[in-house]
Amino acid sequence: MKTLIKNGWVIDPAQKINQRADIIISGSEVVKVYTSESPCQSDYDDVIDAEGYLITPGFIDLHVHLREPGLPHKETIYTGSRACAKGGFTTVACMANTNPVIDTVKHLNQLKTIINRDSVIDIKPIAAITLGLEGKKLTDHDALLKEHVFALSDDGKTTMDDTLMRMAFKTSHQKSIPIITHSEDHDITSQYKDTVYPIEAEYKIVERDIALCEAEDGILHVAHVSGKKAISYIRDAKKRGLKVTCEVAPHHFALNDQMIDVLDPMSKVNPPIRSEEEQLAVIEAIKDETIDIIATDHAPHEIESKQKSYGQASYGISGIETAFAVAYTHLVKKSHITLYKLIEMMTIKPAQIGQFEKIGTLKPGCEANLVLIDLEKPWVIDRHAFLSKGKNSPFHQMSVYGEVAMTLYRGKKVYQK
Question: What is 58-354's CATH number?
Answer without folding.
Answer: 3.20.20.140
